[in-house]
Amino acid sequence: MDTNLLISQAKARFSHNAAKAALQEKYNAKLIIAEQAGLWKADKETINFLYHSHLIQTEIVLMDTFNNPVKVNTLELYQKLFEVYNNVMNEWYDEYIQLETKK
Q1: What is the spatial distance between Cα 49 and Cα 59, in angstroms, rounded to a whole number?
Q2: What's the CA gap between 54 and 66, in Å, rounded?
């Protein structure tokens, strides 16, 4: 194989991986929201916890991303985080598919 071809393939792979990492950073930042006097990450664990908690009680004290205790309405926070998670993941997926087709 030609050395220049190998170098260009390695650079393309590196650029692709760097672009994927940049996408991840961009969309992870969009998952952080301020709501009900706290800062929350719309991740699967928090959403799942809130879903199961709202079946039991309407308000709980939950630690936000800064480890501050915040009393929250479980259903309202669950709905907001689920909405944010869905929207961000769909945007991320669309952009990821565009990136993969450029490969």
Answers
A1: 13
A2: 22
Domain boundaries, the chain: 3-102
Each residue's pLDDT tens digit in the chain (103 positions)?
576 655 555 555 547 678 888 899 999 999 999 999 999 999 999 999 999 999 999 999 999 999 999 999 999 999 999 999 999 999 999 999 998 887 5
Alpha carbon distance 72, 14 (integer Å): 43
HSE of 46 in the Cβ direction (CA atoms, 13 Å)?
Answer: 24
Closest CA to 36 of 65, 62, 72: 72
Report the half-sphere exposure of 103 (CA within 13 A, side-chain side): 8
First to last CA, the chain: 20
